Amino acid sequence: MAQGHEIMTVNSYNGGQITGWGIALGNDLVTNHDLASRMDTSDEWIKERTGISERRIGGTTAGLAVQAAKDALEVAGCSPEEIDLLVLATTTPDDQIPATSAMVQHLLGLKCGAMDLNAACSGFVYSLVTGFGMLALGNRRILVIGSETLSRVTDWEDRSTAILFGDGAGAFVIEASSDQSALLGWELSCDGSLRDILHAEIGGTIVMSGQEVFRKAVIAMTESALTSIKNAGLTPEDIALVIPHQANIRIIESAMKRLHIPMEKSVSVLHKTGNTSSASIPLALVDAVEDGRIQEGDNLLLVGFGAGMTSASAIVKWGGST
Ligand code: COA
Q1: Model confidence, pTM
Q2: What is the mean pLDDT of residues 41-45?
Q3: Taking Cα atoms as reference points, which of 92, 138, 136 lies closest to residue 118?
């Protein structure tokens, strides 16, 4: 992957903390058995090759984002008027124009700027890092959302892609704080020369070279994660929990092995969500929070990869109450 700058030290004087979170999933449950009744595949093959058992589809990108964001605002105990900026990660906007974030801003009653950020499945981490950057520029509270309706760009006749994707959203409130920043290190990368291995034309559906994406994903995730860990002044042993992009359990296993971090320290929700692109890391993170797997002071590694190809990672010291 084309690397960004090697060392990106976080300015801890303009810190921020995660104070709220929420999620949403598409209404309709689609199991592997449902897919097997429509195309030449099987529950066994999908589970063995991907780790996915079922996914939820339906809704709009704005609708799922609003649902997740309402919970995040409630957990943070802040009103819509108190949000200074909305960053919405999505690769499946509801309209070409305007940005989906404009609809979310309106539906939530926010009184602030709003923008979409498309870095495919790395979008949530790109947005989180952008949000922390805007806290450093003086914003007090930022709403960061990853929301996707991939079912709308999935070719439901293509068994090599239809089995993978689902719809969902995850939202986080980040707030300026005088304490050390929760963001200890980060890394963002992109290599646009790899466009052809995973893409969808405007109005089209996802086309993918599965094996090539798989190979590149493992390398990109590992390199990005190691750079972030180094930028945070940490080692892999210091990571309490890894929240990886939820694309394929075998990709997660390979990356964890290369990072020399035991698989038990990773979070996986893909068996019940499929790949929800920029919603996948927040869905997994909230799952871990709700399961009581995260303690105050834990160093979390968030790491994703996606079309572009992009990759992104962030080391977050958890300070939010669970
Ligand atoms: N059910 C049954 N058989 C299937 C199938 C399905 N849903 N999809 C593909 N196959 C078949 C292929 O046709 C092929 O058959 P052949 O050997 O007779 O030609 C065989 O299974 C193996 O295909 P292959 O593509 O090598 O499988 P794989 O082990 O690489 O798994 C993916 C395919 C897509 C699951 C896997 O490559 C993958 O997850 N890649 C990464 C995708 C990804 O993460 N994308 C999003 C990035 S954000």
Answers
A1: 0.95
A2: 98
A3: 92
Active site residue 33: no
Mark whether 275 is an active-site residue.
yes
Fill in the amino acid letter for 166.
G
CB–CB of 310/119 below 8 Å? Answer: yes
Residue from 1, 31, 125, 211 to probe ligand 1 pocket by mutation (most atoms less than 8 Å from CB): 211
Q: How far is the CA of 242 from the centre of ligand 1 (A)?
A: 25
Is the bond preceding 309 in cis, omega lying within 30 degrees of 0? yes
Mean pLDDT of the chain: 95
Mutate to test the pocket of ligand 1, among 49, 215, 268, 311 (most ligand atoms within 8 A of CB): 49
Which domains are delineated in the chain?
15-177 (3.40.47.10), 183-317 (3.40.47.10)
Q: What is the pLDDT, as a whole number, of residue 322?
A: 42
Report pLDDT digits (tens) over 150-209.
999 999 999 999 999 999 999 999 999 987 789 999 999 999 999 999 999 999 999 999
- Tokens representing 269? 């929700």
Query: Is there a contact between 161 and 209 (Cβ–Cβ < 8 Å)?
Result: no
pLDDT value for 179: 77
> Out of 118, 121, 139, 190, which one is annotated catalytic?
121
Instruction: With CA atoms as reference, report the closest residue to 126 among 235, 274, 245.
Output: 245
Q: Ligand 1 mean position to 165 CA, how many Å? A: 13
**Among this protein's residues, is 121 annotated catalytic?**
yes
Q: What 3-state DSSP class applies to 208?
A: strand
Whose Cα sits closest to atom 36 in ligand 1?
210
Q: Count CB-CB contacts under 10 A for residue 308.
A: 25
CB-CB contact of 275 with 246 (8 Å): yes
